[in-house]
Amino acid sequence: MEVSVLPIASAHKEKLISAGYTTLLSIIGVSASRLAQELIIPHREAVEIIKVTLKCSRAVGLEGTHAVLKGSRTAWEMLSDEQNLKLIRTGSEDFDGILGGGIHCGQVTEMGGVPGIGKTQLGIQLAVNVQIPVSYGGLGAKAIYIDTEGSFMPERAYQIAQACIMDTWENLGFSRKEIEDCQEKMQPDHFLANILYFRICSYTEQIAVINYLDKFLEEHKDVKIVIIDSISFHFRQDFKEMVQRTIVLNEMSRQLMKLAERFAVAVLLLNHVTAKHTEGSFQLTLALGDTWSHSCTNRVILYWDGNDRHARIEKSPYLPSASAPFSVTGKGIRNAIAHCKRLRMM
Amino acid sequence: MSLPHSLEEELPTVNDSFLRFGASHGILSAEKALVHVPSVIDASTKDEADLGVSPKGASRTLSNFESKCLRWMNGVELLDDALRNKRFLPTGCEGIDTLLGGGLREGQLTEIVGPSSSGKTQFCLYVASNVAVKLCGSIVFLDTSNSFSPTRIASIVNQICGPAVKEGQERRIKNIMSSIHCQSVFDIFSLQDALHELDNTLNMQTIREGTKICMLVVDSVSSLITPILGSKSSQGRSLMVSVGYLMKQLADEWNLSVLVTNHMVSGGGTSKPALGESWKCIPHVRLQLSRCPGSSICNVSVLKHTSMACNRSVDFEIPN
């Protein structure tokens, strides 16, 4: 829609075009005072121009005229967007079930649990699963793995990738021969090549990397998941001043949310547990304190129930709180099998 | 108030010569005019060649100007205005509505405090949906922590509308959901920008045929403010208070009901609302939410209210 169709004085049209306002949308987006300043016309006339533009654009039903604020979207528009967003499956259908189908792109999800519950396994599994080609029901994207503890095991990742490939084919009901044909296309090596790995040794590095991600994701648009394993490691020991820590953590979570929303990537934060003293009893909660607990969109607690691993939705704006069992097998994260017992190392 | 240009329409005496007079003395805003023009007039009585404006004319304009700017109302008018323009927006949760005498008041700022996962966001989403359905008003939702969930809104709207009518249901839900506007803000400055922009939009609303904006939700305001607090300088605190007043001004001027959420911090064994004492005076109404882990029943208690007794509490449930 061009400016030339507007029923306004031709002098104004000329000024608009020479100032760079060529489409109706560009005029709607600007405030009257700014327009007056740029075109060097009285404020009243600028208001008049915007009024006329709004009327015109509504007449032709132009998109964007409903926006109350620049960049705001209505719930309806967002709903259809959200329905188109892809989900990254965890490998266990039960786990996916309580997550509403898998990890959501565009959101920050925090998962935490006691040591040995399988946080890192889950991280590696998701880094692999995000790469399943679109034709096989995945996202065909890359993963960023930010490792603060040095617990990422490439051998394990290779194993999980192999198992993931086999399972994908089996689920599709491929015969032996077909699998051999496909083997060219999907190889564990490719899966490992698409995990972009950062090793972090201090909290300053961690902040630097997270700030750098903005630029990095701009260049690597095919990344769909960012895994931070773990978010809390360096923050639990290096800080004396708690107030300072809260401020830094808050800033970091804001940055991560911005990334998630802007690039529609899933952000997975793995966290440790800590004992919290409330009303005379100790309870296990995720580390980093109360203020931090507000800063992620979804929160999932991984815990032992007897000998089974369970996951529980602790906090989510849209998921009902529920729990489901899962297990960590040689192949990676899978559904819990009734007889799967925890191996106790004596 | 904006540049004196905007006054021209309302006040015939504020004409070009007055503006020129002002501009020649560097007076460009209405507030400045009120403060500076008298002294300038005194000074320029000796200097008659002042752009052809007689000081008398200027001072007459000024007195008109003052009477227009400094409006006053008496109590009866105020009460009348409150009864007419400041509606109660029903929250949809029966317990809370009776607790607050009808719901969230327009023109007031209501704050919800509560620990993580106590149902603050759920409450915001629920109220927003309920107002959109029952009053057909528009809602502006400023989301600071990616927690606005259109899926959840859809399911709440579905629930409130009920399964009564099948035909046209889809279109109705679309209309309702289109009246909820969401924007993500990730720092305090973009919040300020958004609030100023909202002011502009409301100014222009007269020329739009759309539904009236009756509610503004900021979920959560504390996650934007905590990063700027805590340092030694008081700059963060003054920024916080100015944002608070901006929201209250919007609420009062345009009869919006403003709903913000705040989290809790633990200090000395007990937990209390974050943001400290200087924020405490900003909200008109402060409600505290709490929820036992695992149960779906929330408890809400009144910590502060401008016209009702405090420390009353009630249980309510947000249906799944």
UniProtKB/TrEMBL annotation, chain A:
Keywords: ATP-binding, DNA damage, DNA recombination, DNA repair, DNA-binding, Nucleotide-binding, Nucleus
InterPro entries the UniProt entry points to: DNA_recomb/repair_RecA-like, HR_Repair_Mediator, P-loop_NTPase, Rad51_C, RecA_ATP-bd
Domain of life: Eukaryota
GO cellular component terms listed in the entry, alphabetical order: Rad51B-Rad51C-Rad51D-XRCC2 complex; Rad51C-XRCC3 complex; replication fork
Main location: nucleus
Gene Ontology MF terms: ATP binding; ATP-dependent DNA damage sensor activity; crossover junction DNA endonuclease activity; four-way junction DNA binding
All copies of domain RecA family profile, residue ranges: 84-273
GO biological process entries: meiotic DNA recombinase assembly; reciprocal meiotic recombination
Gene3D superfamilies: P-loop containing nucleotide triphosphate hydrolases
Annotated localization: Nucleus
Family that this chain belongs to: Belongs to the RecA family. RAD51 subfamily.
Stated role: Involved in the homologous recombination repair (HRR) pathway of double-stranded DNA breaks arising during DNA replication or induced by DNA-damaging agents.
PANTHER family, sorted: DNA REPAIR PROTEIN RAD51 HOMOLOG 3, DNA REPAIR PROTEIN RAD51 HOMOLOG 3 RAD51C
Designated name of the protein: DNA repair protein RAD51 homolog 3
TrEMBL record, chain B:
Organism ancestry: Eukaryota, Viridiplantae, Streptophyta, Embryophyta, Tracheophyta
Protein's UniProt name: RecA family profile 1 domain-containing protein
Homology family: Belongs to the RecA family. RAD51 subfamily.
Highest taxon, organism lineage: Eukaryota
Function in brief: Involved in the homologous recombination repair (HRR) pathway of double-stranded DNA breaks arising during DNA replication or induced by DNA-damaging agents.
PANTHER family: DNA REPAIR PROTEIN RAD51 HOMOLOG 4 (PTHR46457)
Main location group: nucleus
UniProt keyword terms in alphabetical order: ATP-binding, DNA damage, DNA recombination, DNA repair, DNA-binding, Nucleotide-binding, Nucleus
InterPro entries: HRR_RAD51_Paralog (IPR051988), P-loop_NTPase (IPR027417), Rad51_C (IPR013632), Rad51D_C (IPR047323), RecA_ATP-bd (IPR020588)
Biological processes per GO annotation: DNA strand invasion; double-strand break repair via homologous recombination; reciprocal meiotic recombination; telomere maintenance
Organism: Dendrobium nobile
